[in-house]
Structures are given as structure tokens and as C-alpha cells.
Automatic annotation (TrEMBL):
MF terms (GO), sorted A to Z: 4 iron, 4 sulfur cluster binding; catalytic activity; metal ion binding
Keyword Lyase: no
Protein name according to UniProt: Iron-only hydrogenase maturation rSAM protein HydG
Record flagged with keyword Metal-binding: yes
PROSITE patterns (UniProt xref): RADICAL_SAM
The Radical SAM core domain, residue ranges: 85-323
Origin superkingdom: Bacteria
Alphabetized UniProt keyword annotations: 4Fe-4S, Iron, Iron-sulfur, Metal-binding, S-adenosyl-L-methionine
One GO BP annotation of this record: water-soluble vitamin biosynthetic process
Any Pfam family matching the protein: Radical_SAM
Cofactor: [4Fe-4S] cluster
Lineage, top ranks: Bacteria, Pseudomonadati, Bacteroidota, Bacteroidia, Bacteroidales
InterPro entries associated with the record: Aldolase_TIM, BATS_dom, FeFe-hyd_mat_HydG, rSAM, rSAM_sf, ThiH/NoCL/HydG-like
Amino acid sequence: MKIMYDVKSERAEEFISDAEIRETMAYAEAHKDDRPLIVSILEKARLCKGLTHREAAVLLASGQQDLTEEMFALARDIKQRFYGNRIVMFAPLYLSNYCVNGCVYCPYHAKNKMIRRRKLTQEEIRREVIALQDMGHKRLALETGEDPRNNPIEYVLESIRTIYGIKHKNGAIRRVNVNIAATTVENYRRLKDAGIGTYILFQETYNRTNYEALHPTGPKSDYAYHTEAMDRAMLGGIDDVGIGVLFGLETYRYDFIGLLMHAEHLEARFGVGPHTISVPRLCPADDIDTADFKNCVPDEVFHKIVAVLRIAVPYTGMIVSTRETPASREKVLELGVSQLSGGSRTSVGGYVHEEEAEENSAQFDVSDRRSLDEVVGWLLDLGYLPSFCTACYREGRTGDRFMSLVKKGQIANCCLPNALLTLKEYLNDYASPATRAKGEAMIARLLETVPGERVRENARRYLKAIEEGGRDFRF
Ligand code: SAM
């Protein structure tokens, strides 16, 4: 298939070409009932080497029930093959809701006088992090609004240093991912030097005209600067980046294609695609009513988006947050999601002061309000293995090193034992008796499936050492 757009271009308009997206949408619509084509795309997908945005768009457009079932079955197979039953756990930490932007879908927008603006001090961050450590979290995603005066990069860097420095009982945050506004190559370099895991930034929408209407004021209104952020992050040395769109802002067909074109662009220019893709759906929030947005994505379509993404980019982790209900999370876990937040608070200071949420300072209304222990117990009931692993990034398995291990199918050799070890730590230190019993049974069952006799023997030894008080063993 001829590529019309310049996939290696450094300019947003070229690697996310509006003309290419529209042409792909028309092509997908024209072929949505073309069974031989769809069957051949599914055949290619079975090789687990991924699909082009064009092929994936045809799968998404197809409305034929039996073929959709085939897509779902393939997504489940691919998920099982690359991720087994492991689900990586994390929590967001909101540092500040000061924001100078005018994003019309976000309650942090500068004109919203109803929410209480807050920015955590380093001491408050310490208390929030200890509350998160006491739940059992090891991996955080930092969130801030964009405000160069209140939340400058120095504040974010200082907060990261604070977080990594907190040792409390057996708790320690071992990986800090960062979701802050688009910034300069130099600032990305400083984030890299501070030891961040993944840099996450959602495109919101790839449709430039719509993007500009949805972001009327503030630095985020610059479409090109925002869209080229991951290129700058990679130039700054960050090799694990997480992309996503906010489904509901634009037609899902447009943004689905944009998302995959963005992934293709990063792979073509830097030799490594995104580490993760997030699939947030627009939620009601303080002064945000989803009824004002005509592109909200219904559940069946959402499930299909997740399944086709799983098929199209088998090596890319997929993240779902507490924006989704437990029922919706259950469905997308099955179809491809590999990372899940649990016990989340989306208000600044919400882990220490739960009433913060009631004060309407939250970024969006959470649809899964269960504690981390409840989520872990639920995952175990469903047959999943909750993992608190952070080993890859700490062992330097990032960017193309990580991807080449995934592509060779070797990552599972580390992931499974690491998941067992970190679940064991969780069960010993934080779990309720019921969750602990379920988790121990899961560990006993899966230990026997760890590939390689030596690794299995070491895993057994480390599990015993954890029982006796040792921590932080990893492969
Ligand atoms: N301020 C940073 C930026 O500008 O990219 C990112 C942090 S923001 C706290 C995280 C994400 O929340 C945004 O990128 C957006 O996609 C999402 N978000 C904003 N309003 C939302 C809403 N009403 N429902 C669901 N998600 C929302």
C-alpha cells in the first residue's frame, strides 16, 4: 500500500496527515463488507507482527458479527501470548490542579472558578505517597495541570526526587511515570535524568481543526507543539513514551487512525513505537457534562477499539483507568488491556483527605471506587495475576531493548517470575486475609509454569526469602 504521508517527517501535519486519515476512513468504509479482505487482514494479524493503520481501520469499520467475534478471539489469543494473565498495577498521583489552559472538556480549565485550586507541598506529597505505599502501590503516574508559574518543571523534578526518596516500612515507589504537559527537549532530558519511567501525554484528538476548537486558549492550543511532544521526548532521551486519545472528543474512527499513525511515525523515526497506549473515555466532571459532546463512544464500540488495537500493536502495553466501571474494565482486560489503576483518587491530596473528592476538585468522576485490595482480589477471582513489577525499567530494559525482547517472546521469561515475586510482597505486606489466600493459591499454581528450571528454582528461593522478610528481588 502506497504511503501518502511522510511517516518520518518531524512535522505534525505530515506524520498525522489529515488527508491520509480521511482517505483511510473512506477506504475502510468502502471495504467494511469486503469479507475476503477482512479475512486476509485477520490472517496477517495472526502472525502477531502487527497491522498498518489502514488494515486496522478496515477491521474497526467491519460490522459483520462473526468476523467481530473472530477479532475478539484473536485479541484474546494475542493478549495471552504476549502478556499471559499478568496485569500491571499503578495509581495516579495528582500534584496540582493549577492550569492556564482552556480545554473545554477538562474541569481544570483556567476559567473554572468552582474548583478549589491546590498544589501539594513536598511534605503533602510525602503524606500522599505514604498513603499509596500503605495500599501496596509501587508504580505511580504523576499528573499536573499546565501552569508554568505554579507547576514549573523544577517543581515536578523536586517532587520526583521526594517520591523516590521516601522509604516507609516495606514501601517504596519504584517507578514514577509522568503525565505532564508538552515541554521542551531540555526539560524532557531533565525528566529522564530524574529517573522517570514512561512519559505519558494524550493527544486528546488528532483532528487539528477540532483540537484548536477544544483548546481555545493557553499553551496547549498549539496543535503542532503538542503533537510533536513525543518526538521531543525521544530526542531528550526518554525512550518509553505513552500515547492516547480522549475518546469522545472526535469521531472514534478519526482518532483511532491518528493513534496508529502516531505509533507508526515513532517506530519509523526512532526505531521504537510507543511503550503504552491509553484508551480514556470522556467522563462527567465538575462543570463538564458529557451530553455536550456528540462523539461519546458506546461500550460495544469501545470494546472493539481495544480488541483491534491489541491486534494492530501486539507489543504495546494498553492502559485503562478508573474512568471505566468494573464491568467495562473486566471486558477490556480480556480483550487486550495490560495495565490497570486501582484505588485511585483523581483529586489533589485525595489519598490523605478523601473528602477532597467531595469538594469537586477531582479531574474526572471515578467509576471504579474500589480499594486496591478489592481490585487485586477481584483480578485474582477472574484468573488474572496482579503484578507490581517495575523490573524492566530498573534493569535498563527500556525502549528498543525492551521491544526486541518482547518481539522475540523473551520478556515473559522475566515478567512471570517478577509478577509472582511482587504479588508475594503485596500479599505479605498489604493484603486482606481473603486476598492473601487467593493470591497464595495463584502463586503456587503459576510457579510451576515459570519457563526454565534455573529461573523457576531462583523464583522459588526468592519467594521463600520474601516470606522471611527479604524484598525487591527481581529478574
Ligand atoms: N495537563 C496535562 C496535559 O495537558 O496533557 C496532562 C494531565 S491531565 C491531568 C490527564 C488527562 O486527563 C488529559 O490528557 C485528558 O485526556 C484527561 N481528561 C481531561 N478531562 C477529562 C474528562 N472530563 N474525562 C476524562 N478524562 C479527562
